[in-house]
Amino acid sequence: xxxxxxxxxxxxxxxxxxxxxxxxxxxxxxxxxxxxxxxxxxxxxxxxxxxxxxxxxxxxxxxxxxxxxxxxxxxxxxxxxxxxxxxxxxxxxxxxxxxxxxxxxxxxxxxxxxxxxxxxxxxxxxxxxxxxxxxxxxxxxxxxxxxxxxxxxxxxxxxxxxxxxxxxxxxxxxxxxxxxxxxxxxxxxxxxxxxxxxxxxxxxxxxxxxxxxxxxxxxxxxxxxxxxxxxxxxxxxxxxxxxxxxxxxxxxxxxxxxxxxxxx
Length: 264
Prior knowledge:
The chain is of the alpha+beta class. It has helices at about 10-20, 30-45, 75-80, 80-90, 90-100, 130-135, 135-140; strands at about 20-25, 55-60, 70-75, 105-115, 125, 155-160, 175, 200, 210-215, 220, 230-235, 260. It has a single domain, classed as q2cbj1_9rhob like domain (Jelly Rolls).
């Protein structure tokens, strides 16, 4: 359980996250942080032009056959080296997560989402939980529970740091506030579940971050601009209640389940 008195977030911010299923926090990265992380991604982009690795996914919308345009880098905390592993375990980051999910914090996974200019493809409406976090059998068991399945039972939360401005034109994440309390649905989400009047574009300036729960409905439009929308996702988790996470997720996501903080 989260502490009664938050360490870093305000009580209103904690309440907002659990009410809405997401939270935008500005200015978590310094200009130096941003420059270091951008330089690291430039090195990785150069490296993958002459190497192959299963953790580097090609952008499916790219028409460039002579250049590996990256959509996603899985396990960025390993491939990116020290700047990324340090960001993963920063005390101020872990303080934020302790405020949200309590002091027993474990690592779930990491990835860099590149969203390149004019080529970054759509990510349709979905919830993260059924995208490998749980088995198909567990998903089939949980769906009939409907709203009896509450987000507090599955404290699995992502933070997506942005090293570029994330805007509507370059494909920022869009969310439906409160959708994390509507239960678990098929993946991807049937768009009939989405009321356009409820959608909020979670625009974030470079250096800021978006936090969202694994049951929150979210979507990312294509990047139709000439600007990058690069972001790194670190997912953290605490003990679940009545939900069995799939340890098989660790087969590709190195470090899954590693304790990062405890109360003892």
